Amino acid sequence: MDKVYRFDPAKITEKYNIKEYFNEYSKLIDQLEHDEVITDENKSKKLDEIYKIKNINYFDEENDESNDAENNTTNQYEYNLGLPQGLPNIPAIQKLKLLTEKYAKEEKKKSLFKQPIYVPINNTEIIEGEKSIPGKDILIEIRIFNPFVADSRHGPPSKRKISLSRVISILGCQTLADLRDKISCISDLSVSYESSNDPSAAQHLLSNKNLYKSGFFYIENTFYNDMRDKNNHDNSAVIREWAEAKNFGQFSVEKMEETKIESLNVRFGYPWVYQHQGTCEHLVVFADARLINPDDHLAIKNYPRVDRISCIRNSSCLLCADKPVYWITIDSDRVPHNPCYFCKKCFKSFNYIDGKKIGNFKAYRFPCDPDIIEAIENKSRVKIELMDQS
């Protein structure tokens, strides 16, 4: 990858063995515990000094007020996008206010789309079972990017747009297989089965993730294959043969289910590859690592977990234009669109009477995460109930 892609070396660390690095770090911490600088007595003295310093009034009241006014002005224009106070109440100013409000709403929508969604875990936290040890166990943050097109027909590497999919936190004692199980991709969720005659049967069909389980991580000249299923294939074999013919060097092969995250030798900030479904490739970046803190979620069953995900634009039903797409129909003789996208409700009400199919069409499940669809539908249901109550 170094020969193909050029990266800013300032954003990439040297190669480290995660386990060895934090073992050395833990030794330094153990030595500091006996240092008089951080004894309990000195801690309290230091806190008293800081408290006194915090209460010293370095500035007079005039300066404080001017600073507050300056900060308020900055916040007003940066976040509220409002107009200056004291403008005359004339039609031109009123129109300008309306345009400003409209622009502010549009900018807010844009900013919300770009911002990541932080996934709350308070309701799903597990407190039972084996616990990780604060100051000993390692927590690694890994960034998973959306599928990466490696075809040269899509332009040179520097011109291709790469977007973040999600950020996953995983313990060093867990394996690459645990990491893989936490990665969600639309190519895994597809169900390639025509279900127009019996849509209810589609819920019990296996998705691509359960049918085609082979996959690998490529990290530092090593292919880590998923061999948990006896029918899995080594998808890296053809790549290694090609690389050997091109004199790109030798590559080693390991099993991801036997490889702990903390045993890896990695460069933080450098993009590696996760490949599944034969040709679907994601860039994977080790972004950060630290020791577990006492105020972290200590139960090992809480990990790996998705910390945040990037916003995506969901496709909407072409009939109601409100609910997310759940079904796709093709070759239908009753709709002008081919393909046509339906939500659950519109699909059944438009294409079936008393459970019997109307007209000719083929139906396929839309490749989407059913948990996300359920969350969106529940949110819409609550909104409608609140509107009815008001």
Automatic annotation (TrEMBL):
Keywords: DNA-binding, Nucleus, Transcription, Transcription regulation. GO terms for molecular function: bent DNA binding; core promoter sequence-specific DNA binding; RNA polymerase II cis-regulatory region sequence-specific DNA binding; RNA polymerase III type 3 promoter sequence-specific DNA binding. Signal peptide: none annotated. Its main location: nucleus. GO terms for cellular component: nucleus; snRNA-activating protein complex. One of its GO terms (biological process) is snRNA transcription by RNA polymerase III. It is found in: Nucleus. It comes from the Eukaryota. Coiled coil: none annotated. It holds the Pfam family SNAPC3. Part of the SNAPc complex composed of 5 subunits: SNAPC1, SNAPC2, SNAPC3, SNAPC4 and SNAPC5. SNAPC3 interacts with SNAPC1. Part of the SNAPc complex required for the transcription of both RNA polymerase II and III small-nuclear RNA genes. Binds to the proximal sequence element (PSE), a non-TATA-box basal promoter element common to these 2 types of genes. Recruits TBP and BRF2 to the U6 snRNA TATA box. Belongs to the SNAPC3/SRD2 family. This is snRNA-activating protein complex subunit 3. It comes from Aphidius gifuensis (Parasitoid wasp).
